[in-house]
TrEMBL record:
Transmembrane helix keyword on record: yes
UniProt superkingdom: Eukaryota
TM ranges: 29-50
Protein's name in the database: Late embryogenesis abundant protein LEA-2 subgroup domain-containing protein
Keyword terms: Membrane, Transmembrane, Transmembrane helix
Length: 199
């Protein structure tokens, strides 16, 4: 029998070419799943970067000015007074840094010499701030051995003072952080970096 040249080829089944398509291709599931995975990866990367940058600790430094009443050779009882300046350099690009009310203590050879209260404060992102804290103690009784050591250290300009800054009520803080600094008598008016410890 002769075949019609212009006749349309017969299909093998009634479904046409759809049976040759996978379910993924037919409904666009592959494209949707792929797009969703890309969005999840990108979102997670952004969230991780933001979280990491948000946890960057500021730089802390302290200096002491106007140290008075520290004359161990005159009397076993001294009346230390000074002013402490705390500088906070907030390097965070997206978050401000806030700190609750704190207690500042200056010590020599593990003996508290003076203290004061640092009010609660916040420093905006990518900015710095300085806070001044007056420190004093009514009287400090120094043992003879400690007086001699202090006088010797002061004479050679190597009196080492420890500065501790801790939350006034650490039990109320979500993440209490403590600052520890060392200042030498010959560099009292020079900013000295502090270390921060959080628990």
């Amino acid at each position: 029998a002769n075949k019609d040249v212009g006749a349309e080829p017969q299909r093998a089944d009634g479904d046409g070419g759809e049976k040759n398509l996978t379910s993924c291709q037919r409904f666009g599931v592959c494209y949707g799943v792929g797009l969703a995975l890309v969005l999840v990866v990108v979102t997670s990367a952004i969230a991780l970067g933001v979280s990491t940058r948000g946890r960057v600790d500021p730089y802390f430094s302290v200096e002491i000015s106007g140290m008075e009443g520290l004359d161990p050779l005159r009397s076993p009882v001294v009346f230390p007074e000074s002013n402490l300046t705390l500088r906070v350099d907030n390097r965070r690009p997206i978050r401000q840094y806030c700190r609750e009310k704190s207690t500042v203590t200056i010590s020599y050879s593990q003996v508290d010499m003076a203290w004061g209260e640092l009010p609660a404060f916040c420093v905006e992102r990518r900015s710095a701030s300085e806070l001044s804290v007056p420190l004093s103690r009514p009287q400090v009784l120094l043992p003879r051995q400690l007086r001699d050591r202090m006088a010797s250290d002061m004479h050679v300009g190597k009196l080492e003072l420890g500065v501790e800054i801790e939350p006034s009520r650490p039990q109320d803080a979500d993440r209490p952080c403590y600052l520890s600094c060392i200042i030498m008598s010959g560099h009292l008016d020079e900013p000295q970096l502090c270390k921060q410890f959080c628990v």
